[in-house]
Fold this protein.
Amino acid sequence: MDQHTRYASLPPIRSLHELREALRDAGGLRERIGRPFITLTFAQSLDGSIATRDKKPIGLSGPESSRLTHELRALHEGILVGIGTVLSDDPRLTVRLVPGDQPRPFILDTHRRTPPKAQLLRRRDTTPSVVCSESFAAQGQCPLEASGASVLPCSTGGDGLIDLNAFLERIGRLGVSSLMVEGGARVISSFLTAGLADLLVITVAPRLINGTAVLGPYRGPEIRLQDTCFEPFGRDVVLWAKPCWDGP
């Protein structure tokens, strides 16, 4: 099945209600597209900044859009960030602002740099998975496991980073049917470059920051957005859209 065929069978998702309905059938979607359903979500300023110029995190989302983010977390079986986000933000990735299940956390960490004292590893309600290269996973006793994480070895691509297709196949075998990718910029760009996204959920805050661009690392072809929907959430505007890479 080629990349474009893998997306042709996905239904339009124009609202949070339709997203709920789609994710209830996440297992069926995984069977049809051959991997977990992937939602890329991030908050940005009006000028496309996701952090300051020196890559320090910014609190962009207002209360209403933050609540939506937590609802989206509860709708997914897995949630993923990169090691850069762990080192800069030290997130917990929990569902706190709404009732709901906790998604299984994954950290893309090719070189196994996750600090043993990271907040994610101190959670007792779930076992986070640190996804590292097979060579780093084989380097002796790992203190991360003693801190409460599982180490998930994965093959790497030509760039030396985790092969995202291999990673998705691996977590699919673990029973994860839907994955929410929260960032940071390098991870989001990597998924888009690989053509691995079914839905974008973008929170746009009414600020101009002139900072680190969310798609600064992206070097792929132009992406068109289909089935686009805009909704206000307090001071912010949230956009849902299906990305499409196959021509104008």
